[in-house]
Amino acid sequence: MDADENNAGVRALALQGGGAHGAFTWGVLDRLLEDGVRFDRVCGVSSGALLATFLTQGVARGGNGAARAALRRLWQGIERTHALNPLRNSPFERWLWGWDISNSLLWQGFEAMMRLFSPAQLNPFGHNPLRGIITELLDPVALVLPTAPCLTVVATDVETGAAALFGNAEITVDVLLASTCLPFVFPAVEIDGRAYWDGGYAGNPPLAPLLAPHPPDDLVLIAAQPARRPGVPRTPAEILNRLNEIACHNVLQAELAALPAGLRLRSFTADAELRDLPISSKFNADPDFLASLFAAGRAASATLTLTVPPRPGLPSPDALAAVTG
After folding, report:
1. Taking a C-beta distance cutoff of 8 angstroms, is the pair 276, 5 a contact?
2. In what helix (H) or strand (E) does residue 201 lie, and over which residues does it extend?
3. pLDDT tens column, 212-240
4. CA atoms within a 13 Å half-sphere pointing along the CA-CB vector of 58
């Protein structure tokens, strides 16, 4: 680790979306926070927006330990909703296929309904199981404390297709629901007269918010979408899912290619863990499945050493290097 890295200044964090695959990102973050890594700017879309928000409010209230606890409470809340999820496997299906719901009759019926009906028809009241969890856990006061990292949550403006950026003081339950709004499942979320869909359609995630007012010294990118996926998709849902992954990856690659010279990029890719998972896994909050992704994320984070600038109350970079390898 060279002297420039030891004295790194501003560190930014970019978090992709991916539904339940965000548990992989959670695992990476849990290990980094445990190792004392700190972030000055955070940007997230979809499930990455939830992670970014609760990491930010945890850091603001009590540093890395509080951030780890806040992220765990978030995923525990998501697991609780799974008990009421009609798409979960029956005991017999669980015995046959474990956590994989792609073979269940309910999932196949859900896929068929998504092709035949709009979200306004399937879900006319806009029910979203995340609303209760976010309402319970969101702490807007913490997000604007001086100790909070600079946070950006991204949604997609339905009419313009542009990225809508929401900063610390603008984060609400509806903003987070907008950033996670899958247009084939939920009606668009309206905020101040504008309709929004999942932020991943405008960039997964967009990196520009992390470059202002000046580029950071380090950029950490955690992916929750596989860049490569073996085989040719067959069903309409698989084809649409792969098209979305390709589009998101190409936009991200263009942004990465345009990063300023001298910026250190550290990325955690999830291809090995996610490339063979079916699209149904993004909707699966089975506790065993989430635990497996969390463990995979923690293991992946151990394969890449991040430099930590000296800060009061944190161990020295040399001590951290001994821990992270």
Report:
1. no
2. none
3. 899 999 999 998 877 777 888 777 777 87
4. 24
Burial of 292 (0-12, 13-18, 19+ CB in 10 A): middle
Residues in Cβ contact with 20 at an 8 Å cutoff, skipping those fewer than 6 apart = 47, 78, 281, 282, 283, 284, 285, 289, 290, 293
Retrieve residue 128's tokens: 């979203």
pLDDT of residue 94: 60
Is-contact 15 270, C-beta < 8 A?
no
Contact of 308 with 300, CB cutoff 8 Å: no
Q: Tens digits of per-residue pLDDT, 292-318?
A: 999 999 998 876 545 444 333 333 333
**244 has a pLDDT exceeding 70:** yes
Q: What does R_g of the chain's alpha carbons equal in angstroms?
A: 19
Res 105: pLDDT: 58
Q: Which two tokens stand for residue 193?
A: 């007269």
Closest by CA position to 185, among listed 123, 240, 140, 137: 123
Residues 6+ positions from 102 with CB-CB distance below 8 Å: 278, 279, 280, 281
| Residue partners of 196: CB distance under 8 A and separation at least 6 | 155, 156, 157, 158, 164, 178, 179, 181, 188, 189, 190
The residue whose two tokens read 């890395």 is 64
The number of residues making up the chain comes to: 325
pLDDT digits (tens, 9 = 90+) for 79-129: 887 655 556 656 555 645 555 666 665 656 666 556 655 565 566 656 678
322 backbone φψ class: left, alpha, beta (φ>0; ψ -120 to 50):
alpha
Chain center to CA of 80? 19
pLDDT (0 to 100) of residue 204: 85
